[in-house]
Design brief:
The chain has a two-stranded antiparallel ribbon. It has helices spanning 3-38, 48-58, 66-78, 89-104, 106-116, 126-136, 144-155, 170-196, and strands spanning 123-124, 165-166. The protein is flat and about 65 Å long. The chain is mainly alpha-helical. The protein is built from eight helices and two strands, in the order αααααβααβα.
Length: 197
């Protein structure tokens, strides 16, 4: 590559990095403004009530339930490993994305619970979850160890394990199940590839 072309390529790469850094700074400023708007305690963080106000606005004026707010707080707060029961700048976007994903899937979640929550507890216990995973697995019951794996991972997402999957955790449970199936399929393909090679 001629020196001029290499310099031009280096300049373009530097410009892209600079533009990406500007976008990140703009997003940080936006999040800082958002925190400042809802941070009634003026401590630079959002507590549970302040997060509820934010989610209410994100939700078009309808306030989420206390359980939903608590779940979003716990999921977002655990993302950076610094659990403090309040959200800083790095946690707020996670909270908003978590809430939106839950809301986008709420109708489906309600249908899942109507079908599988046999005792009406609002939670899917082991047997309920196994029935759901059996349906997702084309009628083939998964091994108990697989159901337990999904239950443990989904139930611990918010840091409060109770041995069941609640409404907010069910989307995560389904994602874990499909990720597990993909991993098993990849493992199977690698094994058969190696046997052929």
């Amino acid at each position: 590559m001629p020196v001029g072309a290499a310099a031009a390529a280096g300049y373009r790469a530097a410009q892209k990095r600079k533009e990406a850094a500007n976008v990140r700074r703009q997003e940080e400023v936006k999040l800082m403004h958002m925190i400042a708007r809802y941070d009634k305690s003026n401590d630079g963080h959002l507590d549970k009530n302040e997060l509820g106000d934010l989610l209410q606005d994100v939700n078009g004026g309808e306030r989420p339930s206390e359980e939903e707010i608590q779940w979003v707080l716990q999921v977002a707060d655990r993302q950076d490993g610094n659990v403090s029961d309040q959200l800083g700048i790095n946690d707020v976007q996670v909270a908003i994305n978590t809430w939106r994903a839950y809301r986008e899937n709420k109708e489906h979640i309600d249908q899942v619970f109507a079908k599988y929550d046999q005792d009406g507890s609002g939670k899917l216990e082991f047997d309920d979850l196994k029935r759901m995973l059996t349906d997702l697995n084309d009628g083939v019951p998964p091994p108990d160890a697989e159901v337990q794996h999904v239950l443990k991972k989904a139930d611990s997402k918010d840091g409060q394990e109770d041995g069941a999957v609640n409404r907010m955790e069910v989307v995560y449970a389904v994602a874990i199940w499909y990720a597990r199936l993909d991993a098993l399929e990849n493992q199977k393909n690698q094994t058969s590839c190696c046997a052929v090679c």
